[in-house]
Amino acid sequence: MTSKKYKQLRKEGLPDLHNNELLKACKEDENLLAEFLDKNKEFIFSIVAQYKGNIESIKERFNVTEEELLQHGYIGMITALRDFDFDRGIKFTTFVYRPILWEINQFLYNDSKLVRLSRSAIDLIKRMEKVENDLGYFPPSDEMAKILGCTKERIEEVLRFSNDLSYLDANASFEIGDD
Questions:
Q1: Which residues does 69 contact at the CB level (< 8 Å), separation at least 6?
Q2: How far, in Å, are 2, 118, 120, 136 from residue 127 at the CA level?
Q3: Could you tell me the pTM of the whole model?
Q4: How far apart are CA 162 and CA 115, in angstroms?
Q5: How far apart are CA 54 and CA 45, in angstroms?
Q6: How far apart are CA 129 and CA 1, in angstroms?
Q7: Alpha helix stretches (DSSP H) within the chain
Q8: Which of 12, 29, 96, 122 could join 80 in a cystine, given CB atoms 3.0 to 4.6 angstroms apart?
Q9: pLDDT tens, N- to C-terminus, the chain (179 residues)
């Protein structure tokens, strides 16, 4: 529900993000700021989508939630509001892009749960897949290490950090009974 103060500060035909009176009031009133952020969350998602791609693909690629993206977008918008100079003659919507994107990038690339594999690890995964295809099953780590000429620890390390090949771990411990 929209508060009386928010309704009073809104101007017909003027988007909230272009309303300097509303923006200035948000700097002073935390409740008004919370309401402003909630009413303009689609703007944050539009910035993320425009510069980073589809929200669903970002969530999947970086293993993050929509709420996490939104929270970091809010931090960026609050930072922009704090640093914005109303007398400079530029629109807030122009100014706010950079802080929002900076905050989202910091979140995605520094704090994400995503593990990036090295080229050698990716090469090893491809070699393990070839061995699995040739044998028709995924051999235990020590056998795979002998076949590929590397250590068992390296095989297990690569398997542990490869999200796409999680089925390999399951196959490695799966025992087939003799019929």
A1: 45, 48, 55, 58, 59, 104, 107
A2: 59, 14, 10, 14
A3: 0.62
A4: 8
A5: 9
A6: 55
A7: 4-9, 20-28, 30-39, 41-52, 55-62, 66-83, 92-110, 119-135, 141-148, 152-161, 166-173
A8: 96
A9: 789 999 999 999 999 999 999 999 999 999 999 999 999 999 999 998 898 888 888 888 788 889 999 999 999 999 999 999 999 989 999 999 999 999 998 888 875 555 667 788 888 988 999 999 999 999 999 999 999 999 999 998 888 877 444 444 444 444 444 44
Contact 155, 148 (CB under 8 A): yes
- Show the tokens assigned to 24: 């200035």
CA distances from 150 to 117, 135, 168, 173 (A): 17, 18, 18, 20
Q: Using alpha carbons, select from 76, 55, 77, 57 the residue that is nearest to residue 66.
A: 55
List the structure tokens of 175.
């025992």
Output the six-digit token pair for 177: 């009974």
